[in-house]
Amino acid sequence: MSVRVRFAPSPTGYLHIGSLRTALYNYLFAKHHGGVCILRIEDTDRTRFVEGAIEEQIESLRWAGVVFDEGPHVGGNYGPYVQSERFPLYREYGMKLVASGHAYYAFDTAEELDAMRQRQQNAGIAPKYDRATMRNQYTVGEAETQRLLAEQAPHVIRLKVPLTAEIRFHDEVRGDVVMHGREIDDQILLKSDGFPTYHLANVVDDHLMEITHVIRAEEWLPSTPKHVLLYEAFGWKPPVFAHLPLLLNPDRSKMSKRHGDVMVHDFRGKGYFPDALVNFVAFCGWNPGTEQEMFTLEELCSAFTLERVAKAGAVFDYKKLDWMNGEYLRKKDVAELTSALLPALQERRYPYIEPDYVSSVISLLRERVAFLHDITEFGDYLFGDVLQDVEGSALADLRADDAFVTALRAWRDTVTDEDLADHDRFKGLAEGAAAAGGLKLGKFMKPLRLVITHRDVGADLFPTLKLIGKRRCIERIDSFLS
């Protein structure tokens, strides 16, 4: 069987990180089986349409490396996979259901439906369309139904759920699922304006596009029995279903902005690498069954199976994501990172940003940060000579420390370019300077870092001062002493 899956976003906002995971799992599953991954735009709810949302979603997916085999693409025609261009098709299939007795006309007003729900609420009954008492073709009769239709009275078409039936299906993640017909609402399939609901359009498109596996979020699990009934009503074989676990905040609530970023463009804007974000998101609900944590997209395609998708919700660990981004930072090609960082350095008008020099700074500092752009702040003393202010009286205290000042003057007066180029010579210089002030080496090196970089932490001091160079080191010491 040739695998065909689809990712079907709605143009109601920017791409959520949970939607990226859904798209990614579909993509990985298709590539693992040598199949096809389709993009389909489900824009039947025009009341929630957000201008530019689809373009942003497609671009965010492209940035993450999720590229589809069929369907719309940025900058081109949207092709055949946009639901708003297929409305006559859905109406045709909706009318087939009415003709076969699997769907029916309903003429209730909004006020009548509100009153029905109020009665049910007062009686402690779960809200559900009451086919036996409301105004539909079964209660008003066939003649009245035809009269109302002839007068173009407002109406919808609803799914006729068999109340005594048990609806069964197998989910690749959840296992066997059973729901009784009396628990399922007579879902609206075609609205009064002729627009289809998600349920009808989804099933019709999945069948016509020959989708073999429907891999989607857990929130659609309660709707699946309705979809199974639609497949049965049309006489179609349903696809294989797999409902993915929720993404959770650290407190195990449903993922929301209250705890951090949730849109892909937020993560992109903060400097996460796309391959790091994809690697992390793949592990939110799935694991390879090995100790390996770092995967390329190709390796994920090879390793991914639905059998290893978890049922339980997956906690989105922002700290783990930061760690993973740092791991990718340390593995990336320095020349690539230099090209990416140079525009930010140029914007800040730093004087020392010759590409080879910037590459050396990145190689030195990337062990200390999780994001490439952090290097512009963390390493500002390497790119420029305007140093950040030191909080408190630390520098003043050092100026008043005669032993340190004596050691610092000895270092300043004897340092050579050769000392900064050779680690052993550098160590000997530092030991001699410390001894001149009667200090142990450790009591000299940390204050030396503070004087020259205005930071009390950083990369190893030898390569740091080697990059800064003798001239700038002496200028900063003179500034401190004066």
Give a quick rundown of the structure.
This protein is mainly alpha-helical.
Chart the SSEs and their pairings:
Layout: E1 4-7, H1 17-32, E2 36-39, H2 53-64, H3 87-100, E3 103-106, H4 110-122, H5 137-140, H6 142-150, E4 156-159, E5 166-171, E6 175-180, E7 188-190, H7 198-208, E8 213-217, H8 224-234, E9 240-244, E10 247-248, H9 264-269, H10 274-282, H11 297-303, E11 314-315, H12 318-331, H13 334-347, H14 355-365, H15 374-378, H16 380-383, H17 394-399, H18 402-414, H19 417-421, H20 423-436, H21 441-453, H22 461-468, H23 470-481
Parallel strand pairs: 1-2, 8-9, 10-11
Antiparallel strand pairs: 3-4, 4-7, 5-6
Helix pairs in contact: 1-11, 7-8, 10-12, 13-14, 18-20, 18-23, 20-21
If you had to describe this structure to a student in words, what would you say it looks like?
By secondary structure, the protein is mainly alpha-helical. It folds into three domains: 87-244, 3-Layer(aba) Sandwich (Rossmann fold); 257-331, Glutamyl-trna Synthetase, Domain 2 (Glutamyl-tRNA Synthetase, domain 2, Orthogonal Bundle); 335-481, Arc Repressor Mutant, subunit A, CATH 1.10.10. It has helices at 17-32, 53-64, 87-100, 110-122, 137-140, 142-150, 198-208, 224-234, 264-269, 274-282, 297-303, 318-331, 334-347, 355-365, 374-378, 380-383, 394-399, 402-414, 417-421, 423-436, 441-453, 461-468, 470-481, and strands at residues 4-7, 36-39, 103-106, 156-159, 166-171, 175-180, 188-190, 213-217, 240-244, 247-248, 314-315. A three-stranded antiparallel sheet has the order 3-4-7. Helix 8 (224-234) links the parallel strand 8 (213-217) and strand 9. Helix 10 packs across helix 12 (318-331), helix 13 crosses helix 14 and helix 18 (402-414) runs antiparallel to helix 23 (470-481). The longest helix is centred in the first third of the chain and has 16 residues, at 17-32. The radius of gyration is 32 Å and the shape is elongated. The model has no long low-confidence stretch (mean pLDDT 94).
